[in-house]
């Protein structure tokens, strides 16, 4: 509910600013500015998206999980969507999501605001488990031990879709 209220207030404020600026500079100039920010945003999304994809592929090739690149990709999608919406506040926030240094600053602001993402709470650079979510922290060795237990059917065979390592002895 708070997110819906915040979203509605942001949209109303964005349109109010758009109409106020439009009444001062004229309709045609306002439309040209809205279209220009859309095209500039499209160019930035493509450029940053390609660079992020290349970094993610390099990390995959090194055998690492590209978690930072995934978050960057999410920020690029969010920023691109904001730039497609008409309004100057949404454009400003969209550009913050697209420009690397501004994106880092925005991320730090979200972390300092103790933002919850997918059941985990990020607080001053620490990731802690949110008690409202049943997911386990993957860095916690006890939760990994519980996740590593193999499920079997009544005959002792692994359930369909379960992974069996090549090094693991196969039970018959």
SSE topology:
Blueprint lengths: L1 H24 L1 H35 L5 H18 L3 H11 L1 H13 L3 E2 L2 E4 L2 E4 L11 H7 L25
Antiparallel strand pairs: 1-2, 2-3
Helix pairs in contact: 1-2, 2-3, 2-4, 3-4, 4-5
Question: In brief, what are we looking at here?
Answer:
The chain has 172 residues and is mainly alpha-helical.
β-strand amount: 5-15%
Distance between the termini: 52 Å
Q: What pattern of helices and strands is seen along the backbone?
A: HHHHHEEEH
Mean pLDDT: 77
Q: Find the count of extended strands (DSSP E, 2+ residues).
A: 3
Describe the 3D structure.
The chain is mainly alpha-helical. It has a domain at 2-98. The chain is built from six helices and three strands. The protein has helices at residues 2-25, 27-61, 67-84, 88-98, 100-112, 141-147; strands at 116-117, 120-123, 126-129. The chain has a three-stranded antiparallel β-sheet with strand order 1-2-3, with no helix packed on it. Strand 1 and strand 2 (120-123) form a beta hairpin. Helix 2 packs antiparallel against helix 3 (67-84), helix 3 runs antiparallel to helix 4 and helix 4 (88-98) packs across helix 5 (100-112). The longest helix is centred in the N-terminal third of the chain and has 35 residues, at 27-61. It is elongated and about 75 Å long. The N and C termini lie far apart (52 Å). Mean pLDDT is 77; it is low at 119-134 and 141-148.
Features:
172 residues, elongated, 6% strand, mainly alpha, single chain, 63% helix
